[in-house]
Amino acid sequence: MIFLYFYLMEFSSKLLSNVVDEISRLPGIGKRTALRLALYLLKQPKENTLLLSKSLEKFRTEIDYCQKCHNLSDRVICEICSNERRNNKLLCVVEDIRDVMAIESTNQYNGLYHVLGGIISPIEGIGPNDLNIDSLIDKVKSNQVEELIFALSSTLEADTTNFYIYKAISLYDIKISAIARGISVGDELEYADEVTLGRSISRRIPYESSISE
Fold first, then answer.
1. At 8, is the pLDDT very low, low, confident or very high (cuts 50, 70, 90)?
2. Residues of 144-156 as b/e, b for ≥16 C-beta within 10 angstroms?
3. Which of 158, 197, 165 is closest to 180 using CA atoms?
4. Nearest to 210, CA basis, from 184, 188, 177, 187
5. Of 129, 165, 172, nearest in space to 150 by CA
6. pLDDT tens column, 94-136
7. With helix as H, strand as E and coil as C, how does the chain read?
8. Cα–Cα dist 213/129, whole Å
9. CATH architecture group of domain 2-62
10. Which residues 6+ apart lie within 8 Å of 35 measured at CB?
11. Distance (Å, rounded) from C-alpha 119 to C-alpha 96?
12. CATH 1.10.8.420-classified regions of the chain
């Protein structure tokens, strides 16, 4: 009854109502949590709230994607791709930027990345052409890569994506490996602990072996 009242109640301020509506659009945040966050921001010094709003505006309008790896970047080429100390012949294929952050936190990988921007999922209407697969194949064709590491999550859709890419580049002279299955089947890569993920990277296996597992 209390919850029903909350959803039916009218806010005394239209401005507050608008803020609650916008915050509640974020994943995992309902109206009650949105209201609590809005009131918290209201109690903070005005400059703190304005700094948050300016940071969000700057983030949304100025951030871009690296032209080489498709990772989020403040510049045309991200800091990882432009780092001369990294092995530019070693390429780790991941689903999205959260996986890059997860792998970087392990300090076990010194190569570059290629962010697909998702995985093949016919149920959700996502096919190969919706992902950054063509640019990955171009890197292989132009001999920019000596080893490609599949570091997608252990799901059916991810395995399908791995296999699609594998078939597309199988004729080229390149070493193809996959992270060791220290990650439980069905787990998302970003939620793996740093030790387990680091070991999965360092103990990677030939991709052909992972197909037969």
1. very low
2. ebeebbbbbbbbe
3. 197
4. 177
5. 165
6. 999 999 998 998 888 999 999 999 999 999 999 999 999 999 9
7. CHHHHHHHCCCCCHHHHHHHHHHCCCCCCCHHHHHHHHHHHHHCCHHHHHHHHHHHHHHHHHCEECCCCCCEECCCCCCCCCCCCCEEEEEEEECCHHHHHHHHCCCCCCEEEEECCCCCEHHHCECHHHCCCHHHHHHHHCCCCCEEEECCCCCHHHHHHHHHHHHHHCCCCCEEEECCCCCCCCCCHHHCCHHHHHHHHHCCEEHHHHHCC
8. 28
9. Orthogonal Bundle (1.10)
10. 16, 20
11. 9
12. 2-62
Q: In this predicted model, what pLDDT tens digit does every residue of 129-167 receive, in sequence order? A: 999 999 999 999 998 899 999 999 888 899 999 999 999
Two tokens at 213?
């597992």
- pLDDT beyond 50 at 5: no
| Token digits of residue 127 | 């096919």
Q: Where in the chain is the domain with CATH 3.40.1360.10?
A: 80-211
**What is the token pair recorded at 76?**
């045309």
Query: Residue 164 in contact with residue 134, Cβ under 8 Å?
Result: no
> In CATH, what number does 80-211 get?
3.40.1360.10
- Token pair listed for 92: 């780790």
Tokens of 77: 């080429």
